[in-house]
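FAQ

Q: What does a record look like?
A: Structure on top, sequence underneath. For example:
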């Protein structure tokens, strides 16, 4: 899911989109958190925001990640081409970079659905310090 927000002064409204990657034949996930931060983030209290917010280290349990730098379609993906040849339908590859993970998915179809306006996204707000 992507919860898209903007500065309220912009006049843009918030929206929440659900992305469903269909017939996903490959999913790779790599951390983007540096080793020195991992070393400081092994305390189990960092698994939830409530117990980890005041500790040093990366709080893993925030229920969301910043979608930055974002998603990029991998054009002419050899992996997607191999799957297309083997299965007989088109496949695509996307790289999704967040503040904590680098994801790569190989899939055949993508369904995007806008969720009702009452769905407000992440269940809490992070304090700005």
């Amino acid at each position: 899911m992507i919860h898209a927000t903007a500065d309220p002064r912009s006049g843009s409204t918030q929206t929440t989109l659900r992305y469903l990657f269909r017939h996903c034949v490959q999913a790779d996930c790599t951390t983007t958190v540096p080793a020195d931060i991992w070393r400081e983030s092994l305390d189990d209290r960092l698994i939830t925001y409530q117990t980890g917010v005041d500790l040093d280290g990366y709080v893993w349990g925030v229920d969301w990640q910043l979608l930055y730098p974002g998603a990029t379609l991998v054009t002419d993906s050899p992996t997607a081409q191999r799957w297309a040849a083997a299965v007989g339908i088109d496949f695509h590859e996307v790289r999704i970079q967040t503040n904590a993970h680098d994801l790569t998915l190989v899939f055949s179809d993508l369904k995007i659905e806008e969720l009702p306006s009452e769905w407000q996204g992440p269940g809490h707000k992070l304090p700005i310090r």
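Q: Is there anything notable about this one?
A: The radius of gyration is 18 Å.
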